[in-house]
């Protein structure tokens, strides 16, 4: 019973961490505490509700401690992988700060997002004792391959545009940030094609992914209109991605005319 409660807490908190990361980006707090991670002396003096970057760091610490307790209670392939992935995600969290500061390559930002979502999937699987290991599950779950690629390229786009800078409107990409966004867009199209091919099983994910495309274009314009504070759309974009992931893992179904 205790183990199940801790796993539910881990899944909910992991989703919260991802959404709070969107708030950090959306309201321009990415470097509010500098590049020192996780601890910063301002965390003790600044009001917690004033800066989502503080929430992000505190919740990441709680997730790490909870992962250790879960592993002690149930040392399985997924709980071991979960702890390792959380540790790697934390290390990449440090790297993302240096990406935003212009001191590290943008792909590290994409890798941070990729690891965060893979960790989330791992604990979703850990909730079900008879599940496959995360690696066997990912190998056989084809729609997740373009999904995770899209997550990586989305992080790349954020990292490549840098801290509080626009991507810029374009027809043909000219800057690295525009190329990253173009690849992210192509990754999204690939994901839609994969979901379309498997639409009878993943119709819910397909509908959500189509909605996500609209949200993505709105976010693109929000970033260009106000690159320092594109706003709540960043967090909403992450919420939609989490819902798409859940729709794939749990095969949510909606009726689409013509699919039977």
TrEMBL record:
Transmembrane segments: 6-33, 54-74, 80-100, 134-158, 179-199, 205-224, 231-252
Name of this protein: Cytochrome c oxidase assembly factor
Species of the source: Nitrococcus mobilis Nb-231
Keywords: Membrane, Transmembrane, Transmembrane helix
């Amino acid at each position: 019973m205790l183990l199940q409660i801790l796993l539910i807490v881990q899944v909910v908190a992991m989703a919260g961490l991802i959404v709070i990361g969107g708030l950090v980006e959306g309201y321009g707090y990415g470097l509010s505490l500098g590049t020192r991670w996780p601890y910063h002396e301002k965390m003790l003096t600044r009001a917690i509700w004033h800066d989502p970057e503080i929430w992000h760091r505190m919740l990441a610490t709680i997730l790490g401690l909870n992962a250790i307790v879960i592993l002690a209670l149930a040392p399985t392939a997924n709980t071991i992988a979960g702890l390792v992935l959380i540790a790697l995600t934390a290390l990449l969290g440090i790297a993302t700060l240096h990406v935003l500061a212009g001191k590290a390559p943008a792909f590290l930002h994409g890798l941070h997002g990729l690891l965060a979502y893979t960790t989330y999937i791992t604990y979703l699987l850990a909730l079900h004792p008879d599940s496959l290991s995360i690696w066997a599950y990912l190998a056989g779950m084809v729609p997740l391959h373009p999904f995770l690629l899209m997550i990586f390229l989305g992080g790349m786009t954020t990292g490549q545009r840098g801290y509080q800078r626009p991507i810029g409107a374009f027809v043909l990409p000219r800057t690295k940030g525009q190329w990253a966004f173009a690849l992210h867009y192509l990754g999204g199209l690939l994901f839609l094609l994969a979901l379309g091919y498997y639409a009878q099983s993943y119709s819910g994910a397909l509908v959500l992914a189509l909605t996500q495309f609209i949200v993505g274009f709105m976010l693109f314009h929000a970033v260009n209109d106000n690159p320092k504070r594109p706003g709540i759309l960043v967090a909403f974009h992450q919420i939609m991605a989490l819902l798409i992931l859940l729709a794939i893992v749990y095969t949510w179904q909606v009726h689409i005319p013509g699919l039977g």
